Amino acid sequence: MTNRPKLNIPFQPIDKLLLISNTIVLIAFFATCTYYYSILPDEIPTHYNFAGKPDAYGDKESIFSLPAIALIIAIPMLIISRKPHLFNYPVKITPENAQAQYTKATRLINILALMTTLVMFFIEIQTIRTVLGKADGLGESFVYIFFILMFIPTIFYLISMKKSSKKV
């Protein structure tokens, strides 16, 4: 890892779109919590079981926990995405393939940051809908959708990375 080239990977339009999208979702996340805070009951769901049903409750102030956690996760992911030479790769990084591999890895991190923010925002919306009587938790399919959103981009990335390493 120490002899990997350190490259500045420029943002391509898709990368800018991912960053802007994540920022918009984070702003909407905080705005939604602020908007609904005054009409929430004093106790709201804070945890859901595997079936998507609430199984723990806390103060309504906890409505701001998920957006704060999403921000705490997104910012370091976006910062570390600018240092792809530090990542672990399933292929050997060489001067010839570094640009392509770093670009793919950076994009994956940005996609996962957005997916994480979206999933947490969905949980928050469902929490609000649940306490307002418009939903009965996250839904039974939530866990499966979560895994699809998080693992499909990673699988595509790994396949793409392996394919492109064979071309070099």
Strand content: 5-15%
Helicity level: 55-70%
Structural classification: mainly alpha
What distance separates the N and C termini? Answer: 19 Å
Q: How would you write the strand order of the largest sheet?
A: 1-2
Helix tally equals: 4
List the helices and strands and how they pair.
Blueprint: H1 13-37, E1 43-48, E2 54-59, H2 65-80, H3 98-131, H4 142-167
Antiparallel strand pairs: 1-2
Describe this structure in words.
It contains four helices and two strands. The two termini are 19 Å apart. The chain is mainly α and 168 residues long. The protein has a two-stranded antiparallel sheet. The longest helix has 34 residues, at 98-131. The chain has helices at residues 13-37, 65-80, 98-131, 142-167, and strands at 43-48, 54-59.
In short:
Helix content is 60%, strand content 7%.
Task: Please supply descriptive tags for the structure shown above.
168 residues; two-stranded antiparallel ribbon; 4 helices; 60% helix
